Amino acid sequence: METTQWLVTLTFRVTVSGVRSKDDSVAAGLEQLKQGLCSGEDVPMEASVRRITNIVEEEPVFGIKW
Positive or negative, the Cα torsion across 54, 5, 45, 32? Predict the structure, then answer.
């Protein structure tokens, strides 16, 4: 029997300021998210789930990597 695989996409929303580049904003957002999760704060989040069928291991699931 084959195990069902699921693609779970979690979208966290944080607002950052005082940064100049996209890369810096991503880094600042990740740090803010980490601090919020570690301190037990409520972090706004959306979740999307879909069952994966016929996935090819070499094929990237997401097109952009930060």
Answer: negative
Contacts of 66 (CB under 8 A, 6+ apart): 23, 26
Residue 59 in any domain: the answer is no
- Tell me if 43 is assigned to some domain: yes
Q: In terms of pTM, does the model score above 0.85?
A: no
Domain residues for the domain of 23 are 5-52
Give pLDDT tens digits for 14-26: 899 999 999 999 9
